[in-house]
Specification:
The structure holds two protein chains of two kinds. By secondary structure, chain A is mainly α. Chain A has 14 helices and two strands, in the order αααββααααααααααα. In chain A, strands 1-2 form a two-stranded antiparallel ribbon. In chain A, helix 3 packs across helix 4 and helix 11 runs parallel beside helix 12. By secondary structure, chain B is mainly alpha-helical. Chain B has a two-stranded antiparallel ribbon with strand order 1-2. In chain B, a hairpin with a 4-residue loop joins strand 1 and strand 2. In chain B, helix 7 packs across helix 12 and helix 12 crosses helix 13. Chain B is globular and about 80 Å long. The N and C termini of chain B lie close together (about 5 Å). Classes of the chains: A mainly alpha, B mainly alpha. The interface between A and B is large, with 45 and 52 residues.
Chain lengths: ~325, ~325
Amino acid sequence: MAIPNPGDAGRGKIDESLSTESADVVRHESAWERARRSWSVRIGGTVLLILLFIAIAAPWLGTVDPTLFDAGSRDLTPGKEGEITTLDGEAIKHKFIMGSDSFGRDIYSRVLYGTRVSLIVGAFSAAVALLFGIVLGLMSGYVRWLDGPLMRVMDGIMAIPAILIAIALVAMFRASVLSVIIAIAIPEIPRVTRLVRSLVLTIREEPYVEAAISLGTPAWKIMGFHILPNTVAPLLVQGTYICAFGILVEAILSFLGVGLPPDIPTWGNIMSEGRSQFVSFPHNVFFPGLFLAATVLAVNILGDGLRDTLDPKMARRT
Amino acid sequence: MYKFLARRLLATIPVLAIVAVLVFLMLRLTPGDPAAILAGDAANTEQIAKIREGLGLDRPLIVQFGIWAKDILSGDLGESFYFKMKVTSLIGQRLEATVSLATLTIIFAVFTAVPLGVLAAWRFGGWFDRMLMGFSVMGFSIPVFVLAYILIWIVSLKLGWLPVQGYKPISEGFWPFLRHLILPAITLSVIYIALIARVTRASVLEALGEDYIRTARAKGLPESRVLIRHALANAAVPIVTVIGIGIALLIGGVVVTESVYAIPGLGRLTVDAVLARDFPTIQGVILFFSAVYVVVNLLVDLSYVFFDPRIRY
């Protein structure tokens, strides 16, 4: 598992051998260093970086505007040459690497641009869930009278299957990128809250927190400087899982036709449009599906790697 | 035992009550007039006024909730304006397909995942174990509908073994019924298998480290008996727990699977209701699914007594 990176090899040792103070100090690898050497983190991280590059560089990767269509290029199979009409009304030659859909739009361009929505929704739904979870968790772990009622509400949210909450919320507020992010984040908040709360309850019994309290440190300082830093690793792990879940749920919502409007190219939307023609033209469903599965897999592998290295306690639990 | 049963039953009441409050608030927080939303786009002013009166929209929120809660408790989930019938009878109509699909999925998943997990724990660190763990990560990652289309493409379109879509009620014969459910059940079970196999592996692995396993082996018991009677039996509680928790995944999966395979069940109903913005039905389905989830987990808690005789309530 731990194959040393040639560039890093022995660097730490050389530095230490030069320093007389640390000569007999056994150097412990920090959790972050362990994470960087984990193969799961490397593979998942690399795939994600490639996807991030695709998302940013989508306009320069041989794509056309994903909303362009051409009646003459409908239902092309992957690899076929065809024409596509630009916004100026001019027909240009284009190679449809992944084929085209029933409107004559280029699947390749749509899939590549779809990366943007997926990554944005994944990252931001994780961020929103973590933010609210941290605040509520700290409050619940620190403010005694709030704990009971808050956790009962969380129990209630957790009793509703997550996808149902997301679907219902999107149905209420017309779907936009923001409302989809919030709809995905809300059912995840209770899990983060519980995690933060349990961490707070453990950490606040530690001697250094007691010491800080006895010195008269205000509660917000204790939370911010003593408790919060210790929750970073488990929250990061949790965050990657929420991100994977968010990407998945966004695709499900779009696929079911209740998510983002069909004119926004998302993997779920492409598949949703392709499903009626699946029997004759499976490529409309398979290419976005492949990207979706690969992305979620990469995030999950990254999460597993981070969990095993940063949060070994959690790794033992599952 | 009875005391525990009573306490556990009482503890589910606040959870269900909070679910009810959340579902109730959902509609009130929606921008727009709840009465107009409930009545649907095709309703006239008279119908809207009637609904407004029924909801007590001019009264305080707490009174409105009281009216609503009383209706639910008396078994009335309101009227669907899209399907033009009572939500309760709508759910009743769609129940058979979903229950059949879920039952088949659970049976298939448990009977696949538990042996796989036990084998992986038995050969911990070996190729089978690593393969299963790899499969489990993939099972968590592959979207249900992508998997559904891959299976349809291979099994139904290329091989022609099973129908592409559709549903036949059991009253039309067992084989047609089963034929239509095999693919959806396999699709739905993959994530469930991944979850159960992972937990089975972990908890059997823990049990295998116990002294009584060494004793059992030292007695010369056959390995299969050690694994099943000693290790698996002692690892049962976490496995049963995760089967219960996994019901939430299953419900989410049902919504997607039924939509892909055109099965007229509750999941399909949910999507249809959302597309039509049919709020009484959405509320009813969410309440129903949540109640099922809570009750299943209650039963799981109670089943601990059966799986682990040391647990006495």
